[in-house]
Amino acid sequence: MTTDNTISYEGKTITCKAAVAWEAGKPMSIEDVEVAPPKANEVRIKITHSSICHSDSHVLAGNTPNTKFPIILGHESAGIVESVGEGVTAFSPGDHVIPLFLPDCGKCMFCKSGKTNLCLGLTSTWGRGLMEDGTTRFTCKGQEIYHFMGVSTFSQYSVVSAYSVTKVDHEAPLDRVCLLGCCIPTGVGAVQNTAKVFKGATVAVFGCGALGLSVIQGAKMAEAGEIIALDINPGKFDKAREFGATRVMNPLDYKEKIEDVLKREYNGGVDFSFDTSGGNVGVMNSAFECTTNGWGLSVVISVAKAGDTVSTIPFNMIRGKSWTGCFYGGVKGSDLGEYVKNYMEGKLMIDEYVTRNITLDTINEGFDDLHAGKCIRQIIPMHE
């Protein structure tokens, strides 16, 4: 467990190591970067642990054309507050925290609605890789470096908005709860908050990576009757069973379309399906088509390439099928304390996601392993 031996550089610029993506489609390079002190309503965090997520890879590959480079990626992490800016009262140096790629301002129309976890608090600058004042806190080789999703956790220190961080229990191991920064709440929350899977339901999960395993875990927690894990990599099936899958299927083993197989074998279709395939719109279509008429619901979680579309005939909607999606599983930063509590009480699996620790110097190889399906989650201890 990380201890509170953080040195305060309050009011000073910190020079530290970070993985900088100078341009899309190229490997990141490990650089010395300068991290400015936090301004008003900002928090500077010593990032203790970060993990590699497919969303980072999606951006690095150039699949999000509005992303500005150079940029520091990373969004699934945990750390310790090093210093706070003017007006910040909710956080203090030494607090253990999880940075939030989805802000939670508590003040905007969305936050007050109680109907969504989306937040408008940082919309004017978040997507442009900037802080609220329209500037960055990172520089490298005399050049400004853009922020990623408001957090940029592939840096040993990062500055975030006070809306983009939440406190966690000091007793919780940061090298594990860092995974609550994205994949686990996204999958479990999609089951609990978006789909509201009922006891005894039939659930099909397309993709058995970390996100798919989180959906499987959520379905097991919801006491689903049948949890079908689908993937074209059978090497993932043992892990899927460990998380709660009652059946595994490789679509390549069937001559028919997999949606037709599922409809035939499950009395017209499954109750719920979830796409966690990594952005394959063909898989998204299959996930929708395999749901039952009347009440079948398919949830899109993974992110497709810009410009890709999904489609179906309108009569499917008339027959009662629904297609929806969710961002971060409908979870708000203020909900993460309950996730930590469940983990500490043995009610939520986290350790089982971790394949290995890697170093910041080998982060590009870590991305290669992720693409090759050789790992579930790799943790980077940022200060080793």
TrEMBL record:
Keywords: Metal-binding, NAD, Oxidoreductase, Zinc
One GO location term (cellular component): cytosol
Required co-factors: Zn(2+)
Name assigned to this protein: Enoyl reductase (ER) domain-containing protein
GO molecular function annotation: S-(hydroxymethyl)glutathione dehydrogenase [NAD(P)+] activity; zinc ion binding
InterPro entries, A to Z: ADH-like_C, ADH-like_N, ADH_Zn_CS, GroES-like_sf, NAD(P)-bd_dom_sf
Annotated Alcohol dehydrogenase-like C-terminal domain residues: 210-333
One GO BP annotation of this record: formaldehyde catabolic process
Pfam family for this entry, one: ADH_N
PANTHER family membership: ALCOHOL DEHYDROGENASE (PTHR43880), ALCOHOL DEHYDROGENASE CLASS-3 (PTHR43880:SF12)
Span of domain Alcohol dehydrogenase-like N-terminal: 40-168
Family: Belongs to the zinc-containing alcohol dehydrogenase family.
Keyword Cell inner membrane tagged: no
